[in-house]
Design goal:
N-(1-d-carboxylethyl)-l-norvaline Dehydrogenase, domain 2, 11 helices, binds nicotinamide-adenine-dinucleotide
Amino acid sequence: MHQVKTICICGAGTMGSGIAMVAAQAGFQSILFDLNDVVLEKAQSNIWASWNALLAKGKINQEDLERFQSQIRFTDKLQDCQADLIIEAIIEKLVAKTDLFRSLEELNPINTILASNTSSISINQIAQHLEHPSRFVGMHFFNPAPVMKLVELVQGDDTNEKVMTLLQAICQKMGKTAVVCKDAPGFIVNRVARHYYLESMWMMASAEENGEELDPASIDKILTATGFKMGPFQLMDLIGMDINYGVSQIVYDALGKPERLKPSPIQAQKVANGQLGKKSGKGFYDY
Ligand SMILES: NC(=O)c1ccc[n+]([C@@H]2O[C@H](COP(=O)([O-])OP(=O)(O)OC[C@H]3O[C@@H](n4cnc5c(N)ncnc54)[C@H](O)[C@@H]3O)[C@@H](O)[C@H]2O)c1
């Protein structure tokens, strides 16, 4: 297996911009691609602001800042997506992802590793659309990517062992803790964490039905007081309801629609109203 020097990240939204930061900081030549220029500009200004904040706190020096900045390139051209490792972090839609991977296969040599940051789409299902599924893998970072240590490495039926070994070394270089997991619905964290979100929304809905008052802030306050870093509603706003609802639907369907994992009507309503959370300026809270 070849050495990885360049990493291209496709999708410059919440996750892609964070992963690009991590890659550049770890010394990889990084390319951040998005179709949307406005998103790209926002990603660049957020990344620059984060690095400047680290400089102001004395966590990095001026030399580090300049090196990080020189190691990341922003592009809206698919043709620029040529690298040793490509991490896809675009919208959570199977067709969008498979279309992109097919183009990436045409643009890149056979030894380029292709990874998806999908939260819930089956790695084997995406792999079915690829010409060379042995170099395809799930590489699931958590939000915010520069802060959260865990990366779930999802091994598909065809993923080459050497790819798994190489990605574990790359995660280590990025300062991450890699956990290898099977291609199961929601992988590990998103399956267990489903209840954190869903049960909170069902609890709020049933309180309303009973004419009782229970709001997101009260539930968040209680959960954070027990030691969770963020309450479920704060976390859903950070994740983005479009993503959270998509994951809920996929996990529910893939596990045979068990009642305990039924998506909440609140999720559908929030998505329909465009109240996606932090990224849209309004979710359970206003931003
Ligand atoms: N939000 C989270 O907390 C979280 C956590 C872990 C994994 N994920 C996964 O990461 C992926 C991205 O999620 P996000 O929250 O960053 O989404 P997002 O909505 O913030 O960003 C998605 C970006 O993809 C871009 N895009 C769409 N189609 C594209 C294409 N064909 N080529 C290039 N860019 C394209 C959009 O312009 C947008 O900027 C999803 O698969 C999601 O499941 C999300």
